[in-house]
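Lecture 7 notes: from sequence to structure.
We start with the chain below.
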Amino acid sequence: MLGRSANGIFWLFRYLERAENTVRLLDAGFRMALTRNSNDASDEWRSVIITLGLQAGFEARFGREYGGAQVFNYVLRDKENPGSVLRMIEGARTNARMVRTGITREVWQAVNESWMKLRDMLARPVNEVRLGSVLDTVRLQATQVRGAMEGTMLRNEIYNFARLGTFIERADNTARILDVKYYVLLPSLSYVGSSLDNVQWDTVLRSVAGERAYRWLHAGRLDARGIAEFLILDQRFPRSLAFCYNKLRSNLAHLAREYGDKVASHDLLREADARMHAQTIDAIIDQGLHQFIGTFIAGNARLAQQIQRDYRFIE
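Predicted structure tokens for the same chain:
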């Protein structure tokens, strides 16, 4: 398989995963903002922008006034934002068109339909009344693309590169949402364990679609340590760091069998996997959640870059 084709598949599914993760975070921010006064709501919207890594671009455009409509329109559709959801879906479609012969008709149709629907929905500014339907559409379209892939694609190298892109992106997103919790969302250590703290942890769970699964496993009890363990180490939850790395290991192993050789990215993943399995939540909290997450994010980025080098995405 040509490296350029592998790159197209990898980034097609990274963009789709990133778009879905972005609207989940917007939805969580919107829910929180609805329960707060105007000043506190501004802090919630600011936290969304910081989590997405868009603070510099947003403040260069709008200053430090974080109004809800400004934030969600900037994130969803602003032409000056290279990280907007519309740009992500456009990037996914561009990559899908580039690898059109490597994906099934159903996958192409799902991606193309996503682009056309969102282009029309985001042709004009979004207000609070329309925001929910826009966010639901992005989630639904991403689900349809994944469903088309799971139901129609051969389990070959193309499928494995698609899954690598998905789980590299998903792990990065979950880690960033966890990292921002105490450093942006929580205004003071005095709030730890308070009702505000609990509401914000619930928001974190909602932003990764994990609130029902967590409550089912923990009898509805919200506990910061338990939630951190759930999102980092619980291999049953499909957005946890451990789950993502189990899938990365499986898909890289399939590529090794297909190509008859292991490469440097296998070594990087094995080391990261060993560190993950050796961890307990007590050890993570003791060393510092922020330090653990920072190390994980940097390692995840190195793994993504190494995969691109090993399989010659850019030649």
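Points to note: The CA atoms of residues 71 and 252 lie 38 Å apart. Residues 188-193 have pLDDT under 50 and may be disordered.
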